[in-house]
Backbone:
């Protein structure tokens, strides 16, 4: 009969080396002082070493030029960007091709942005008055303002968002308690570069006490009750006997029902005779 066909290479089959990046390009962050005029290098390793690589910036193919130098040494691939300018910032991609297959990896060239002037840690305004927040970057960049994590939007007659070069400002007109919260200003696409302020709106009420206290004339061992009504509910109040704060005890009862406050002194004795007052902050 016919002889069986021989196994190629005595039983060994050649497998194609899968196309892959052993090491991908990484983001490059240049500090302000060293960035302009220096060079920046993206490096990666590709397997197999016979893979053909090309480089792109955003959606444009890069060509070898005095600006862009390509190096290919075994598995190592390098893109050297000469004399870095702000216009060189952006996304760079290395594309590797081999045997009809294609893979890519992408990284960013970032010239670091930082705050020259941050927001004040705390900002306050009187209720009804405008509130102003301002900060400044070392470069012109788009920013995103947020209040309590929600994006702050312009609103006619209420919220103004202004940009003057590298200065960023927010003005809130006719402030109310609803404007309190944590405000942040972050660089768009670099949200770790952010500054924060805690906003408080202060309400000054000249006449907190709507119904004043009345003098109490009581017989010994009887109870004296002082009542007053506040302009609005607040936790910031205290009863005073002379200059001393009065606290609840077996003898003294303090009650609060919304805006109504009551102080009762039981079993009145001569040493209870004094001026009692309600103090609201």
Residues:
């Amino acid at each position: 009969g016919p002889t069986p066909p021989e196994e190629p290479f005595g039983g060994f089959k050649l497998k194609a080396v899968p196309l892959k990046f052993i090491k991908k390009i990484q983001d490059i962050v240049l500090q302000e002082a060293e960035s302009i005029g220096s060079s920046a290098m993206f490096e990666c390793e590709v397997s197999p070493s016979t893979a053909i690589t090309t480089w792109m910036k955003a959606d444009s193919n890069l060509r070898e030029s005095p600006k862009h130098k390509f190096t290919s040494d075994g598995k190592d691939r390098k893109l050297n960007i000469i004399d870095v300018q702000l216009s060189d910032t952006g996304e760079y991609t290395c594309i590797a091709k081999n045997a009809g297959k294609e893979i890519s990896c992408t990284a960013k060239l970032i010239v670091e942005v930082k705050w020259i002037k941050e927001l004040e840690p705390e900002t306050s305004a009187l209720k009804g008055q405008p509130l102003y927040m301002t900060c400044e970057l070392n470069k012109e960049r788009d920013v995103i303002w947020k209040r309590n994590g929600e994006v702050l939007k312009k609103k006619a007659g209420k919220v103004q968002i202004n940009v003057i070069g590298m200065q960023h400002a927010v003005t809130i007109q006719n402030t109310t308690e609803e404007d309190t919260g944590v405000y942040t200003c972050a660089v768009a696409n670099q949200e770790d570069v952010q500054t924060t302020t805690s906003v408080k709106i202060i309400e000054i009420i000249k006449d907190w006490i709507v119904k004043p206290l009345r003098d109490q004339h009581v017989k010994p061992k009887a109870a004296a009750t002082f009542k007053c009504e506040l302009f609005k509910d607040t936790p910031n109040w205290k009863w005073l006997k002379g200059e001393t704060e009065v606290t609840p005890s077996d003898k003294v009862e303090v009650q609060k029902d919304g805006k109504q406050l009551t102080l009762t002194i039981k079993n009145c004795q001569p040493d209870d005779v004094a001026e009692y007052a309600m103090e609201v902050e």
The chain has a mean pLDDT of 88.
